[in-house]
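Hello Y.,

Per our agreement to keep a running log of every chain we model this quarter, I'm adding this entry. I've kept the format consistent with earlier entries: sequence first, then predicted structure.
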Amino acid sequence: MGLARSIAQLLSWQWVIIILALSFLGPLRRLLDRIVGFKVGGKKGLEARLTAFERQAGKVVESEPTEEKYPKRLDAELFVLLDKQGKQRAKLGVTDTDSTILSLYDSKENERISIFVLPDGSSTLALYDDDQRIRAMLAQAEMAGVAGLSIFGPDGRNGVNLLVSSEGEPSFDITDQRGLHVA
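Predicted structure for the entry above:
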C-alpha cells in the first residue's frame, strides 16, 4: 500500500499530462509534418492544408450534388452510417437507458470506439480489441466525482487504473493476471 501511495503522490496531474503528451508526440509530429499551408481568418477561423493525409485514411466518397436543398436540421432517434457494401460503420443514437452513444466500426463491423454520455452527464471513451473487449477507457463520472484512465489486458483481469477524485486526490492501481492488486 505504501508503494501505491508513493506512486500516486509522484504522479501529480502535471506528470499525467506530460506522460500523455509524450505518448502522442510521435503521431502529432507526423501530423504536423504534413501541414503544407496554414491560414487564419475567414469563415472557418483556422485552416490547415495537409499532404498525403488521404492516402492513409482514404478519401470520403461524396455523391454528385443535386439541385435539391438539404434541410438545415435533421431530427431522428438513430443514425446509422453504412459503407458501399451495406456494412454498419458508425452509429449515433440514444440507448434504452437514455444515454447518448457514438460507436465507430471497422470494415468487419467490429465495434472499435464508443463514446457514451450518461443522463447524469458522466462520459466515457472506450477502445475495443478484435474480440470486442474494452482494452482502454477514459472516463469522467459526474455522480462519483472521479476522472480516470484504465488500460486492460486481453483477458480483462489485469490492467492499470489511474484515477483522480473530485477533491483532486490521485490513485494508481495495478492488477495482475490473477486479478490481484499489485500496487
